Amino acid sequence: MCTLDQRGNLFLLTLTGDDEHRLGPTLVDSIRSALAQVKSQATPGSALITTAHGKFFSNGLDLPWAQAAGSSSFRDRLGQLVNNFKLIIADLVSLPMPTIAAVSGHAAAAGFMLAISHDYVLMKNDRSVLYMSELDIGLTFPDYFMAMLKSKISDPAARRDVMLRGKKVKAEEAVRMGIVDSAHDSAESTVEAAVRLAEQLSGRKWNGEVYAEIRKAMHPEVCGLLGLSHRAVVAPRL
């Protein structure tokens, strides 16, 4: 599950419950409900921070839930998970405010994707890793995963290591690879840094619709796969 707290213009979305925060139907619905609430309450100067309790930021899609249906239904359940998680990415990409992931633990597979679908990624600098596990467990990448990874990781060598080596990337190396914006000593300091950044961004009082449309224009391939259209918005502040 997740909780949503509001501090003035800032929204803090926290993944709670079991330590792995696997993205199954219940958690996906909970996150989408929270994001819908954030969107409905957005004002110029709003910002979102997403973080998590425990060892994991998120350990990806809920594969144990898919496997519990038996081998004959595993593929169908996996497809359901992939399609449901796609809706969270679409929600984040179209959210009318800056978004920051405060990665307080391991982020694997879809958990990695959840982190980099935010505008900024801050990460705890300890044994926590970013890890695309698909190659190691024998799964291909959904098309929107591929598009997001290409859009967010500009260095071809870094993309290769993440996607074709299954590299487990710690915070400081993730900063050098251009995946993470900054590394911090603890979960608490990661969230504190995210709050400071959110306050800086919210102080600009940007129009949320303009912000969202510019973000979508930055990631055209991703938006095409997510079914998000781009439109011109004119809201002059001259």
Automatic annotation (TrEMBL):
One example GO MF annotation: delta(3)-delta(2)-enoyl-CoA isomerase activity
Coiled coil region boundaries: none
Top-level taxon in the UniProt lineage: Eukaryota
EC primary class: isomerase
Pathway where this protein functions: Lipid metabolism; fatty acid beta-oxidation
Pfam families in the record: ECH_1
Entry keyword set: Lipid metabolism
Enzyme Commission identifier(s): 5.3.3.8
Reactions this protein catalyses: a (3Z)-enoyl-CoA = a 4-saturated (2E)-enoyl-CoA; a (3E)-enoyl-CoA = a 4-saturated (2E)-enoyl-CoA
GO biological process: fatty acid beta-oxidation
Leader sequence residues: none
Stated family: Belongs to the enoyl-CoA hydratase/isomerase family.
Protein name as annotated: Delta(3)-Delta(2)-enoyl-CoA isomerase
